[in-house]
Design brief:
Layout lengths: L2 E6 L10 H7 L2 E7 L13 E4 L6 H15 L3 E4 L2 H11 L10 H11 L5 H5 L1 H10 L7 E3 L3 H11 L3 E5 L8 E4 L2 H15 L4 H9 L15 E5 L5 E9 L2 E13 L7 E6 L3 H14 L3 E9 L6 E7 L16 H9 L14 E4 L2 H5 L5 H4 L1 E3 L5 H9 L2
Parallel strand pairs: 1-2, 1-4, 2-3, 14-15
Antiparallel strand pairs: 5-8, 6-7, 6-8, 9-10, 9-12, 10-11, 11-14, 12-13
Helix pairs in contact: 3-4, 7-8
Length: about 400
C-alpha cells in the first residue's frame, strides 16, 4: 500500500507546486488543501484536492483542515508555506486547539515535523543562530536591538554595511541591508512599524471580517536583530530529515536572485560544502526534525567559512529535484519512512539549474535558459500553463 503525503498551503506559494510530482515518483499518493486558484491545485499529481473555506476565520480553517486530514489519512503532512508552518507547529505544540483536531491528527503532525521542542528554534531566525552558536557553529555576530541607538552602536562595533533582520518572516520581507547611519534609521523605522502590535479594536475588527489567520506572526515577539554583514555568495542546503537525521541533502549557491540583492534564487549551482553539511546535521539532530527543511548560508569571501543565516522549516523550490541533482530528497524520505536503506549521494549530472518560471520571468531571453538545465514541468501541462500565465 502506498504511503500518503498531504501538503497544507495557505498562500499561493508557487515553489511547492512541483513537489507532488517528485513525491509521486517516489511512491507517495499526494493530497493537498489549498485554494482552488493556487498553483498547487493545478498539478496532475494530486489524487485529492481539498479546498479552504472562503471565510478565512480560524475556526473554519481548522475545521476544514481537520476534515481533510481525517478523510485523506496521510502518513506525512508537509507545510507548503510559512503560514502553514506556523499553523501546524502551533497545533502540534498545543498553542492552538480545536474540537475537531483530534489526538490522532496531532500525532501525525508531530511525526511529520519532528519533536515540538525544536519548533521555536528552527522558525525564529535569531533563535536558530543562537542554537548554532551554542553548538560551536559558524554564525555572523548579532545582537537584538530594541532602539535605533542599539543598532547604531552595533554598527560602530562592526562597521557598515550592516544587516537588520526580524526574527520571523519569509522571502527576505524582514531583512534590510544598511549602508550608513541614515539608512539604518530609515530601515529600523520600517521594521519597527511592521511589527507594531495591533490595538484590541483593530484585532477584533479583523477577526470579525474573517481574517484571523492572515498574519502568521500575530502575537509573536518579532524582535529585530543587528547582524554583521559577511561578504560572499548566498548558498542553501535543502534536506529531507527523519527523526533527527538528515537522510538526503542538496547544497547550492544562489548564482542569480530576483529581485536583487535579497530576492529568491532563479539560477542555482550545485556545490559540495562539508561545513554546510555538518552545520545542518547538527541542528537537525538537536531539534529532532522530520520532513523538509532548508538552511541559508553566506560563504565568506574573506575566510571561506559557511556562516549560517537562517532555517526555513518547509520545502523550497529545489526540493523536488530528482536524480540529476545527485540526491533525491523525496525518494530518500520515502525510504527512511519505510525502514529502507539510506541513499548514497552521487555527483550531479548538471552543474546549474534555471528554476522555472523564476528565471524565465526575470529575463525571457536569459542565456541561462539554454546554458543551464531548465527545470520546466513539460509532463504537467496544466501546471505549466498556470506557471506561464501567472494564474
Amino acid at each position: 500500500m502506498s504511503m500518503r503525503a498531504f501538503i497544507v498551503l495557505l498562500d499561493n506559494f508557487p515553489g511547492v507546486s512541483r513537489l507532488p510530482g517528485a513525491l509521486c515518483a517516489s511512491g507517495f499518493e499526494v493530497g493537498a488543501i489549498c485554494h482552488p486558484s493556487a498553483y498547487l491545485a493545478q498539478t496532475r499529481c494530486l489524487v485529492r484536492h481539498f479546498r479552504w473555506p472562503q471565510l478565512q476565520h480560524r475556526s473554519r480553517i481548522l475545521g476544514a483542515l481537520a476534515a481533510a486530514i481525517t478523510a485523506f489519512a496521510p502518513d506525512l503532512i508537509i507545510p507548503g508555506d510559512q503560514r502553514s508552518v506556523t499553523l501546524l507547529q502551533d497545533l502540534a505544540s498545543g498553542k492552538i486547539t480545536h474540537r475537531h483536531i483530534t489526538a490522532s491528527i496531532i500525532t501525525t503532525i508531530r511525526t511529520s515535523l519532528g519533536d515540538p521542542a525544536g519548533y521555536e528554534e528552527r522558525l525564529n531566525k535569531g533563535a536558530t543562530c543562537r542554537a548554532a552558536l551554542e553548538l560551536g557553529l559558524a554564525v555572523p555576530e548579532a545582537s537584538p536591538v530594541s532602539r535605533v541607538e542599539d543598532a547604531l552602536r552595533f554598527a560602530d562595533d562592526f562597521g557598515y554595511p550592516m544587516v537588520l533582520k526580524r526574527d520571523l518572516g519569509a522571502a527576505a520581507d524582514g531583512v534590510r541591508v544598511c549602508q550608513d547611519e541614515p539608512a539604518t534609521r530609515r530601515h529600523f523605522s520600517e521594521l519597527m512599524s511592521a511589527r507594531r502590535p495591533e490595538s484590541a479594536l483593530r484585532r477584533l475588527a479583523r477577526t470579525l471580517r474573517g481574517n484571523y489567520l492572515n498574519d502568521c506572526h500575530l502575537g509573536s515577539d518579532n524582535s529585530i536583530n543587528a547582524v554583521r554583514f559577511v561578504p560572499g555568495p548566498v548558498a542553501m542546503r535543502a534536506v529531507a530529515t527523519w527523526r533527527g537525521e538528515v537522510v538526503a541533502g542538496l547544497s547550492a549557491v544562489k548564482e542569480v536572485v530576483h529581485p536583487s540583492p535579497l530576492g529568491p534564487s532563479t539560477i542555482v549551482r550545485f556545490v559540495d560544502n562539508p561545513e554546510m553539511e555538518a552545520t545542518v546535521s547538527a541542528l537537525v539532530k538537536r531539534w529532532g526534525s522530520s520532513g523538509f527543511l532548508s538552511f541559508d548560508f553566506i560563504i565568506s569571501s574573506q575566510d571561506g567559512h559557511a556562516y549560517l543565516l537562517e532555517c526555513n522549516p518547509r520545502p523550497v523550490p529545489i526540493c523536488h529535484f530528482g536524480d540529476f541533482s545527485g540526491s533525491n530528497l523525496c525518494a530518500s524520505l520515502a525510504s527512511a519512512m519505510t525502514g529502507g536503506p539510506k541513499s548514497i549521494p552521487a555527483q550531479p549530472t548538471v552543474e546549474r539549474v534555471a528554476l522555472f518560471p523564476q528565471e524565465w520571468r526575470r529575463d525571457p531571453v536569459s542565456h541561462w535558459l539554454k546554458d543551464a538545465y531548465h527545470d520546466v514541468p513539460w509532463d504537467d501541462p496544466k501546471l505549466l500553463r498556470a506557471l506561464c500565465t501567472g494564474t
